[in-house]
Amino acid sequence: MARLRLWQSISSFRVVWNLPILHAGIVLGYLFLHLLPASLWAAALTPISTQSTIAGTLRIPAYPPDPTGQFWNQTGWNRVGGVTRNERGVFSYTPAAILQGPILNAASSATSVRGVTLHAKNDNSRLSYVGRSYGVGASAGLEDIILDGGEQVTSLLYTYEELGYATNVKCGRNDSSAWGVHFIRNRTTAAFPDEYLACGVLPNSLYQAGTFFTDSGCPNLIPGYAADWYAVLSVDASNEHVFALQGVSHASRNMFAIATGTGEYTILDKVQCEAYFIPQTFEVSVNLTSSLITVNPLGNSTVDIDPSALTYGAGTGLLPRYVVGEATYLSQGITGLYSSAMGDTFISNIQNVAMARNASVNDTSVVMDGISSALESMLDDLLLSIASAQIEIAWNDSAIAAATTPAATTVTVAAMRLGTFEYVAIIATLNFLIVATYCVEFVRTRAWRGLPLFDYNDIASVVVAVSRGGDQLGAAIASAHKEKGTIWTGDSAHMEGANTRMSLRFNEGMPTLEATDPTEEDDEDTYLKADYDDTQKFR
């Protein structure tokens, strides 16, 4: 009887809590196994946000020959190319005149006190660089990606390779520096500033007969060398606000020299730096979700982006020369009366280096590293500004060959998939086992031929089958209660003798439930286990 109640509970998918503990556990386990596939199917069919990669093309800056000097091959403050202002930003081939603020602001924090430096791209793209830009990545936010196949998708990230320069600046103090600032004219009234002359030569200055100044005007002149010079203004009848940087590209070298007055910029005085423009290949990664650009050097390149490098040598062509000149114009163009914006930029970054190292701002290595990293940032942004101008100004001008070139791009896009691999694998395995079990039973039962039609879940069928078995079952239960001095009240939880063995047999061709002798052998025919043969007669 207990076994009959177990089968009935399993067949009806419900737990009869007054079953024996073992049987209740079996029912719970069966229900769990029955509901598990549905849960796995739900997990396997749930849409999940994921990512996919597709190929695309992005136009990046190129530097074709510019014989007219209208574009990237300009000289000095020549503004033939003009300034372009549009919804994407302000673009010019003279960034020292147009973009001084963003360039110096980025250089003032070239070294981060905490973590990696972030600085905004000098346009309206709202993108920022993580670390250095190396002058590449101008296309991000300015050019659209053309996807292979023309799909309309939501791009999350894209990467591409671009050639550029890994600019490296080395600085040191040269006490015999021939670049200096000299008093020229005192103000006559409070309304007029004092005039100072920044002049002299650098170690790589051009050698030529004669000089532009007399020894009294520029005492540091070396006979036979052409001097560089420009005026610096100051107030307060002192030179404490005077700062002057000069860059010279000559003899395959790109050098800078700094001269200051006796005030707050003194730690920068007589510092000389050399910049190396090393052709490299870079991987540019643009994360459109976080609006961040990451540039990773991939190694030196045998190709220089500057076509004039074939004449002058790698890293010493017209483009690096122009950038060195623009750095000088940053100093010339903003010689303030009360302070120097470029001098303040170097001081700010030196302080950042000192805080990052917990060192003194007067430490020589701190000063030199602060100047070199700030100057690298300026050169990076100057290169980036010229690259952006190639995209926005020169790209459609007939006076120059193609100013952009296509670059293969790997685009990461938003996608959806059904389920995860783990759930799909589990449900596939479970389904395989179910189908395999089905096939085994199909073969074992010979396509289920001869199985009885009796349904012990149907109450009418059970009543008829039990009535045909006589009163053996009822007598057994009554006897069990009588021995305990009780009677069965109909409560299935208090049915003494419920473990009476039953067998399903054919009696006169009809299904019959009979109570069996407890002394009978406990084989597979008991507990409602009906065996059959080809004649459908039960043994």
Automatic annotation (TrEMBL):
Source organism superkingdom: Eukaryota
Region feature (Disordered): 512-539
UniProt KW keywords: Membrane, Transmembrane, Transmembrane helix
Biased composition (Basic and acidic residues): 526-539
Sequence intervals crossing the membrane: 21-44, 423-443
Listed name of the protein: Uncharacterized protein
Organism annotation: Mycena venus
